[in-house]
Design brief:
Helices cover about 40% and strands about 20% of the residues. It is of the alpha+beta class. The chain folds into three domains: about 250 residues, 2-Layer Sandwich (BirA Bifunctional Protein, domain 2), CATH 3.30.930.10; about 140 residues; about 150 residues, Threonyl-tRNA Synthetase, Chain A, domain 2 (2-Layer Sandwich). Helix 8 packs across helix 9, helix 9 packs antiparallel against helix 10 and helix 9 crosses helix 12. It is globular, with a radius of gyration of 25 Å. The relative contact order is 0.11.
């Protein structure tokens, strides 16, 4: 089954069951201080899982773009990727276990409209219970009924501890048990296994996770369940690339039609072909393509730092493979052609950004080699000059020297605020939290954006924001350092709107109608047919006279009067053409 058919069948399956198909959110979260990228399918939907009404209803499904770099050193094996897509569906206070578990089985095994997997090769796990919540006998009973009805014999259901079958985004917030589905890759375990046999097969990757249903019904505080949610939710997910590997009968994701043409292209061109290096190139260039498409540019900070690291590592690997100049651009073009039917991609913009980074890196290589000769610390070579540790090791080997990788890795660990960007945070999605101050800063960010437009002009556009209970951070396009006078004008505008005690309203509109309001909006490909618009000023029924209008999922304060005094602490460059403001409310 081709990857395009897998995508089509998944979306059609849930659309036929009343789900609105929503677009993927950008890889860059709007207001999440714990991660620099969306790392899971549910992450952009946390406000709605917490109870906010979604403009597209209570049943949703989509493919979500994700980036994780916590396992970057594992990329090139059979399963690890930095960019991947999560297939998922959600029930926001709608259906629950009795509907979702049969659907999961149907999607996985139905040959006509599902994935057509052999039910005799399926295994499932359920939550065994602990001091926080009881054993999930309901899910297990539903699975047993399904297996019995379909003649799936032998031991198939295993109760597992919270470390395996309990989902929570952190010590506080919504949580609940999950049931996970595994598939026998070998085809030899169809008799059903004891729990000990299953665990051994799992360790040996003879069975792999193929689907996961999370049943959110509890609330945790300080890592203890303190009650139940007003409405129970379902959050499911599965890695698209892994599903494609299983359905295409491949032992690893790189042999699927998502990567095989790129690897063949590299192999045909390389004079010094090495399989793992080629896989790293294929993965990293795909990730770089999607990051640039979502507005990230190479830099030495935050998302741009990760993009630079991935792009330069890919370029270095292409060099070690002895490929011809320009193959990186050809790989990018292939990815754009493959994915442009599903995601917005600007071929010129992406190609230009990658080429410029490639040219900068070649200059860096020459400078780095000179500094290596001077004996400069490998960590400084990497963090200051972007000189890959792989190249440092190679140059040292040529001289009969060794590099203290343990010391390098220790320093890199201390540098986790940058290099950990793709790792999963302790709290996912939306705002980093929904505390009173974070909500205030969220509203202040809207006012800041509007003020920047008024002071600097309409060429200003948001490139990202990061909100904590202590401050806001706002990235925006602007070609020059702001003057003290410009910063003062921005502060005065924001504080004027705060003192005016303006009401904050929310309205749902069809997307086309919302666009006509001239409300600010970003990452346009993530909005559905119905969008939520927050506006400051105006009335409950009209935006007339509104100061600020933005497409946004919330939450916000009800009136600007509660915000206090707005003060810009710092204005600085992030990358070429992108500035950053850090501000506080006092």
């Amino acid at each position: 089954m081709t990857s395009a058919e897998v995508r089509r069948r998944f979306l059609a399956f849930f659309e036929a069951r009343g789900h609105a198909i929503i677009p993927s959110a950008s890889l860059v979260p709007e207001n999440d201080p714990t991660v620099l990228f969306n790392t899971a399918g549910m992450q952009p939907l946390v406000p709605y899982l917490l109870g906010e009404k979604h403009p597209n209803g209570t049943r949703l499904a989509n493919f979500q773009k994700c980036v994780r770099t916590n396992d970057i050193d594992e990329v090139g094996d059979n399963t690890h990727l930095t960019f991947f897509e999560m297939m998922g569906n959600w029930s926001l206070g709608d259906y629950f276990k009795a509907e979702m578990i049969p659907w999961s089985y149907d999607l996985l095994t139905n040959k006509e409209y599902g994935f057509g997997l052999d039910p005799q090769r399926l295994y499932v796990t359920c939550f065994e219970g602990d001091e926080n919540a009881p054993r999930d006998v309901e899910s297990a009973a539903l699975w047993k009924g399904i297996f019995d009805k379909n003649g799936v014999t032998g031991e198939r259901i295993y109760f597992m501890p919270a470390a395996k079958n309990w989902w929570q985004p952190g010590p506080n917030g919504p949580c609940g048990p999950d049931t996970e589905m595994f598939y026998d890759l070998t085809g030899s375990l169809t008799k059903g296994m004891s729990k000990a046999e299953y665990l051994k097969a799992d360790d040996e990757q003879k069975v792999v996770e193929i689907w996961n249903d999370v049943f959110m019904e509890f609330i945790k505080k300080d890592d203890k369940v303190v009650g139940k949610l007003a409405k129970r939710n379902v959050d499911t997910g599965s890695g698209f690339e892994r599903v494609c590997a299983v359905l295409q009968g491949k032992s690893n994701v790189f042999e699927t039609d998502l990567f095989e043409p790129v690897l063949s292209m590299i192999k045909a061109d390389a004079k010094n072909y090495h399989e793992r290096s080629a896989r790293i190139v294929a993965d990293h260039i795909r990730t770089a393509t999607f990051l640039i498409a979502d507005g990230v540019l190479p830099s030495n900070k935050d998302q741009g730092y990760i993009l630079r690291r991935l792009a330069r590592r890919a370029i270095f690997k292409l060099g070690s493979l002895a490929t011809a100049p320009g193959i990186g651009a050809k790989i990018i073009e292939w990815y754009i052609d493959r994915y442009s039917a599903f995601y917005k991609m600007d071929k010129v913009q992406i190609g230009k950004a990658f080429k410029e980074e490639e040219e900068k890196f070649f200059k860096t290589l020459e400078e780095g080699k000179k500094d290596f000769e001077k004996g400069i610390d490998p960590f400084i070579l990497w963090t200051t000059y972007g000189f890959p540790i792989e190249l440092t090791v190679e140059l040292a080997r040529e001289k009969g020297q060794t590099v203290d990788l343990e010391a390098f890795n220790k320093k890199m660990k201390e540098h986790q605020d940058l290099s950990r960007a793709g790792a999963e945070g302790k709290f996912k999605g939306g705002l980093g939290d929904t505390s009173e101050m974070s909500v205030k800063y969220h509203t202040a960010t809207h006012l800041l954006h509007k003020a920047l437009h008024q002071v600097l002009g309409d060429k200003v556009s948001q490139k990202g924001s990061n909100i904590t209970p202590e401050r806001l951070r706002f990235d925006f396009t602007h070609g020059a350092k702001m003057t003290d006078e410009e910063k003062k004008k921005v502060e005065d505008l924001v504080n004027g709107w705060i003192k005016a005690a303006l009401p904050v309203h929310r309205i749902e509109l069809p997307k086309e109608e919302a666009l006509k309001t001239d409300a600010f909006h970003f990452f346009g490909d993530k909005y559905g047919d119905i969008v939520s618009v927050y506006y400051v000023g105006g009335t409950d029924s009209s935006m007339e006279g509104a100061i600020s209008k933005e497409f946004c999922g919330g939450p916000h304060v009800e009136n600007t009067s509660v915000l206090g005094n707005f003060k810009i602490q710092k204005e600085e460059a992030v990358s070429a053409g992108v500035r950053r403001i850090k501000a506080v409310l006092t």
